[in-house]
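User: Can you predict the 3D structure for this chain?
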Amino acid sequence: MSRAQAIAQASAYFDDGRFMATLQRRVAIRTESQEAASRPILYDYLQQEIIPELQGLGFSCQVIDNPLPDGSPFLLAERLEADAAFTLLTYGHGDVVRGYDKQWRAGLSPWEIVVDGDRWYGRGTADNKAQHTINFAALTEVMKLRDGKLGYNVKVILEMGEETGSSGLKEVAELYRDKLKADLFIASDGPRVNAATPTMFLGSRGGCNFDLRVNLRDGGHHSGNWGGLLRNPGVRLANAIACLVDGKGRIRVPSLLPQSLPQSVRNALVGVEVGGGPTDPEVDPHWGEPGMTPAERVFGWNTLEVLAFKTGNPEAPVNAIPGHASAHCQIRFVVGSDDKNFLDNIRAHLHAHGYTDVEVSLSGVQFNATRLNPDDDWVRWGLASMQQSSGKQPTLLPNLGGSLPNDVFADVLGLPTLWVPHSYPACSQHAPNEHILASVSRESLQVMAGLFWDLAEQGKQVHTQRAAA
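Assistant: Here is the predicted structure, written as structure tokens:
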């Protein structure tokens, strides 16, 4: 048995059609967690697809009802070895966003894999069914070669409600803290930095969505009779937003920014290119925080975006000064931000500049920012393994630009977190025509087989070294 054999067997799993057959079954299951009628289907995915595979590897499995009302179920599984040196926790989600069946390109269906060159279309291919399918398959091939002896324990948490905000995930982690106790977290979600480059990220930016509203009066009033006499809520709100973020996208409120951009993060982002793909939008070099590279702006800093703005009746404007205006906004933020006081700081800044008529309120659940130190021993080990398996220099992102529930694993469970994504930025995730790339999937099987193999060979040493530091 050897590392090369493990990678060869993972490649064969793709080449002989087993990966396609497994993924086809899983894509066909309409696990739309946003639809209440799909609740039984979410349980079916766990019980019919995932549990049989994991039980075949020696895992004990338990389906957990969500502790929150109307929440989606979870699967907890564990495979313990008597002389295990440490424990690995991995994660995935089996739910998908709505199919939007009629919006897909002619000849495509969200519930059937359709191959078009390197692209495999189907809902959940990129997010997240292919990703956890790859990881379980790679683990299987490694275990076959090692006669089922890894030298480490493996625990799994698979949720079925990530697309509805991971409702109940934090509560499950707290309730089952002992059962989920581990030393290292490795999982896959989100995109690589680009299709060609194996990528590791160590956390995610947080997300705070909030609403701004100016409510001055009931109904509208004729602009000819009252123009120049009545405050216009749209004008007031537009200027209030400009008080928060300037015309070049730079945040104007110091308390909404992180304390600093650590040198370790700057070092990790040297040479990282954002965008440049055939379907990517062109990056505006003069937008956002000045003096930073595009990678530093999206992975190392905070941004404030206006996602929606409404005043009056945009679909059928009339000659009237509207009575109210509203905007839906978002702050993406990194570790080191005063995220507990975002809304209070926004209110204080607006009030100090005379915008006392602007109401500020949280919209939805706020995700926390997380980031493992890029100099961590596990990071160096993981990058070396990925490079050996792929023959490529992997890209290290200190955190994903988007948001994931990584705070549950990093903060609640206290784990070092390594994410190795198997998708790419132009995968149409959450949109019609979602797809994965066959070439990336095959390479990802090789990368994950290498990681699981190297954990068996080197993990004990890294774990001991890190604990002694």
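Residues 438-468 form the longest helix (31 residues). The radius of gyration is 24 Å.
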